[in-house]
Amino acid sequence: MKPIQVGLLGIGTVGSGVFNVLARNQDEIRRRAGRGIQISMVADLDAARARSIVGENARVVGDAREVIANPDIDVVVELIGGYGIAKALVLEAIAAGKHVVTANKALLAVHGTEIFQAAAERGVIVAFEAAVAGGIPIIKALREGLTANQIQWVAGIINGTTNFILSEMRDKGLDFDVVLKEAQRLGYAEADPTFDIEGVDAAHKATIMSAIAFGIPVQFDKAYVEGITKLAAADIRYAEQLGYRIKLLGITKRTDKGVELRVHPSLVPAKRLIANVEGAMNAVLVQGDAVGATLYYGKGAGAEPTASAVIADLVDIARLGGADPTHRVPPLAFQSHTLGEAGRDLPVLPMAEVVTSYYLRIRVADEAGVLAKITGILADAGISIDAVLQREADEVGGEGSTQTDLIILTHDTREGDMDAALAQIQPLPTVLAPITRIRKEELN
Amino acid sequence: MKPIQVGLLGIGTVGSGVFNVLARNQDEIRRRAGRGIQISMVADLDAARARSIVGENARVVGDAREVIANPDIDVVVELIGGYGIAKALVLEAIAAGKHVVTANKALLAVHGTEIFQAAAERGVIVAFEAAVAGGIPIIKALREGLTANQIQWVAGIINGTTNFILSEMRDKGLDFDVVLKEAQRLGYAEADPTFDIEGVDAAHKATIMSAIAFGIPVQFDKAYVEGITKLAAADIRYAEQLGYRIKLLGITKRTDKGVELRVHPSLVPAKRLIANVEGAMNAVLVQGDAVGATLYYGKGAGAEPTASAVIADLVDIARLGGADPTHRVPPLAFQSHTLGEAGRDLPVLPMAEVVTSYYLRIRVADEAGVLAKITGILADAGISIDAVLQREADEVGGEGSTQTDLIILTHDTREGDMDAALAQIQPLPTVLAPITRIRKEELN
């Protein structure tokens, strides 16, 4: 059978990874796919660099639309990123009857509904394993491996940059700013790290997983997004003393009222496997009603791990793409005509409706009655306390200090109730600094 | 679309799990699969018990062949187990044009080639996600998620009974026999635990993974199989002191000379995620040349975790089974006509050709020159020593003891060379007991 003809849009880090892995493993991939997979066209603004990568093996053009217009191309791989030109090109490729493979989590989290709709109407596949957790086949696991389950929640370390930073902060006892600079120097963080450290990248991925897990449309605009920039070394240390690690988790959870969709730093029991995922690695923990907890771990970024996912999608297309469109796996796991139904049933909840437990660090004056006052306010708000850790003032502020840290762990609480309680506690004269509030996930 | 009609052969623990999960999650499964999945017939020798499970929802018969002969049945789910009648029924179901789902690892590890061949000729699917690691979608990950990779090795904790026993031995410092009895009392081990504790069950699963990972035929008869019955609490303790845990691993590895396929207790660095998989849980670590290491963790047994995998296969069949057979995923990942090719290229290696590192525990007389003699023999055999731990005689044998344990960790060694060296060391008059030899896997 003739090799499947692939056109790459963009040949940066991931694109050259795709090219190299396909070249290196072509025999084995052909034996799996049943036909060869050939990159025959590459579009990149930097045509000279593109040529230096692909040599004589593919035609290099400057205009992506030349690839899309070529009737010999079966699949367009979009590796440009972002919401702008990438969106237009993906929609044009679909309109031209091409299957599309993309690693573009931002695009799918924001415009996925429109894109999948267009693909369904045109009868083409849009595949995106590389969009979430790099080389870990988590999309396939959620969409195909766990189809028997009512999925209850998904919690993932799905941003390698922030996990590297948090691991370093813990290992070396350093503050965020210091470690960020080191991460940038080592190439684990970009020059403009905003999307990573503010949690936006993780929220894109969590949004995609929420749709697949629960059969709801992608709704990035409803996601709660909080990054790691305000974490202090002290919080990581206190968490450790209490038996927890702090991880940036992307969480999506089904409740009776709707779906939680949130990214924020989280205390996780140190004994959980996911708490021990270190450095730039990713891991996703999925709770299903039949299977229980399953975990998927691996590299979430990098040229070849991401290429591994892109090529797996190409093999899927080579194997299944020729079948009539009713005999394929739906992109978001659920048959597309049923997504609307569920969107009505399961709204994404506002953060005030989320129920979780909390770690609070409150810098207080070291005087009698402070603890009683604060715990009284929590009790009045119906917030139940799990543990309190009060540090010696000397230990916190140095000898003769009149300030101390009060660490409170709560039981499950509605976020809105916590907001209300903290609004009362923060202005107390004995509370000397902005309160640190970190959510705590037991993941059991 | 009409629901897909399923006939169950055998409704024991897993069968009733399949029935219950399908009933509980039927709406969600239908939304994913695009059509309902209905168990309309059940064959079981204990018809009364079968009726008590399925009620009026399915026809219960005593003869499995009635299910196979029924033209309304689309898929036969074989949950009988073993090589005997199960093999005949699976082949008859295939011959009758039914798709088959099975959890029967023994059957596939031994007779898989014949069964997949028959299925290919008849144009039906044989699916078996439940055969390896229960609810963890590891077959799908290897067969579809990692298709870009030249897979280098797979190492898995794929038998929950033995992992439970090893976890208990370590936690409580108890010997094998004591913990086995406890495991039997708790239901983690069967009354006849031979297949689990001798490594046979793990070897069935490793055999299936070797075929999928490397594109070779299933060759259970070539697997090296060693169980955990000879492990002593002392070895677990010494391993711990050296920074290792002991796990029963199913390993399959590609080398220049061929494929290693082996099950045995293994020292694993304690810091590896897989070393921290406790109790009856399963985990499989896969090393691919593009993706690096990925790990898959979850419950490897039990009614509903296994049902999760069986139903995922049914959903795959509902989604893809109607396509013409050229547009499906090949059962062993590689297109079947290419399996023979590879079988010639990559023989399964005899154990003497396996290269790994070792932990040796040698009970010796506590006298001068013993260590020199033993390390001299190892050096002459070209075996390089990584570390030596010599215990105080008093500590090992009680006060005044004249015996001690010599613990030696080696670098990578050919198993045949180690056999030859141990054949010289064992008869030494200063070696007072059978030498314990446990393989060590760094898994990096």
Automatic annotation (TrEMBL), chains A, B:
NADPH binds at residue 105. Pathway: Amino-acid biosynthesis; L-threonine biosynthesis; L-threonine from L-aspartate: step 3/5; Amino-acid biosynthesis; L-methionine biosynthesis via de novo pathway; L-homoserine from L-aspartate: step 3/3. Signal peptide: none annotated. The active site is at 205 (proton donor). One of its GO terms (molecular function) is NADP binding. L-homoserine binds at residue 190. Keywords: Amino-acid biosynthesis, Methionine biosynthesis, NADP, Oxidoreductase, Threonine biosynthesis. NADP(+) binds at residues 9-16. Its EC number is 1.1.1.3. Residues 359-440 form the ACT domain. SUPFAM superfamilies: ACT-like (SSF55021), Glyceraldehyde-3-phosphate dehydrogenase-like, C-terminal domain (SSF55347), NAD(P)-binding Rossmann-fold domains (SSF51735). PROSITE patterns: ACT (PS51671), HOMOSER_DHGENASE (PS01042). GO terms for biological process: methionine biosynthetic process; threonine biosynthetic process. Belongs to the homoserine dehydrogenase family. This is Homoserine dehydrogenase. It comes from Pulveribacter suum.
